[in-house]
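Record format v2
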Amino acid sequence: MTDKEVQRSIFIAGLIRKYQNSSISEDEMQLLDEWKKSSEENRVLFRKLIDDETLGEALLEMDEADTGLHVQHIFESAGIVPARIKQPAVRSLLNKRTAQWLVAAALTAAVAGTAWFFVGTAAKDPADKPIAAVDTILPGSNKAVLTLADGSQVVLDSTIQDVIKEQGNVDILSKGGRLVYDASKLLKENRQSISINTITTPRGGQYQVVLPDGTAVWLNAASSISFPTAFTRSERKVTITGEAYFEVARDKSKPFRVAVVSNSGTADGMEVTVLGTHFNINAYPDEEAMRTTLVEGSVMVRKAGVQMKIVPGEQAGIAVNGTVFDKSYPDIEEVLAWKNGRFKFNNADVMSIMRQMARWYDVEINTEGDLSAIRFSGGVSRKDNIEKLLEILESEGRVKFIKQGKNITVMAKH
Amino acid sequence: MKVDSCNDDDCLRLLEQGDDSAFHYLIRIYFPVLVRYALRVARISSAEAEDVIEEVFIKLWERRTQFASFGEVKGFLYTSARNGCLNVLRSRQREETRAGSFMQLYGDESANSDEAEIIYSELLVEVRKSVDTLPIKMREIFILSHYKKMSNEAIAAHLNLSHQTVRNQKSKALILLRQWLKRKNSFLLIFFSI
């Protein structure tokens, strides 16, 4: 096809477009008629284009999702640094693939469009954010890091919305602090491509994930969950650290097992086996015990050869190095407050309160004096600044706080 | 500056000046159309077609000051896409010793003539431009509804919007698209409104 022929085709397309929106002149109409009459093929083509159905179908053939990535490749190869984009500061810490996603997301957000699923809530240029005054301690927010099987990482927060295409047709959608795995398009022959993903929240972060079986998991700060991108085995097995609340999707043929790693690396942790139920596991390394609290259904908790079955309202606790489960009946609202965006304390000792503060506000806690007998009851929103909570606690006159940057010293008052 | 949409002359001028957002606009409108075109011109894989089209845009940026009209830019896009596809086929052919492999030079059997494929592509570009003019939220709803075939309920849940908002946004999107396309009773719009 010669350049002239290409130009002629473009010209004819222009005439058809003008015909469609009724802006064609008489002379142009004559040219279009000549083209139509010149061959049977042209006449058929014209009729098809005016009919539009073929265009509609052609539109559906086109893949929208990856355009952002292509833009990024092209910009990179052509040496274009978009004027409005500042490279995210984290870039150098991440591998190439993650950086590509970040840049693609930023590019798309900045110029609004292209990869349709990036649109909506744009990743803000960090420079646009008001600079926080020194010493201001912000409450935690929706943030986490997704680690894929190949070790590459994606930074998640509540603003970026994205379809991450995993191998094997498992779609991962991140939106509003929630990551959703969709394995519905997974083909049987693709099963070997199932891989293990890990979501890790930092201190001051929380995140939600919907696993490929529909199970919803809320991750509290400084926690993690590892799981396969599709549950194809006879059981659904995930591994967690820190604190997580589960709403397990019912599937009697596939028991759901949660392996709880209490200290980094030790596999001799606790295991919770369930069929379909709602429960909370708190297993932070700095807490004395691992606690499993059941809200609905039934679970079996197992550790080092001992096991205990609990019913709704019960909590099974076991010391990190312990071999005996202890059954208790906690305030469920207090246990689940974090998931509902609140801190709630029911006669809680000040150090357990401060450990929760440390994880959510990402602060370091020091103590002075004997605090062991000091207990508080009450509640505040997790969106409140830490000052508000400290003020409330101080107002009772039993403790005093000294705040220096991110360090908070708790002192007993006499 | 930020280019949300531009007419052909403006686009050419901005491109000449090295405006990356005008370039971005061209890529997001043309990229999927050119990939589709490439797949119909030659029997190559989607990944190969995407690589070819990326190269086309990289070359376009290098030569952005050499075009006298936007028509020439379009011509360059289609001609380079086609040549890129043929290069893929040629290098593959060198690797294959089998005599019959020449057959692969032909694209999708359902493909029309070269002229028809370019006409198709150009009209698809116009529709893409119109969808691209929708406000972001509306466009998102529109895409979920028409490209991803999601129900109003599913979109409402997905975007955390009320069912009514989704319906309103969808009908507004259709009105805007109709204005843009200036067409009445178009099948395309009926197709969109399913």
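Residues 3-20 of chain A form the longest helix (18 residues).
The first strand of chain A starts at residue 141 and ends at 147.
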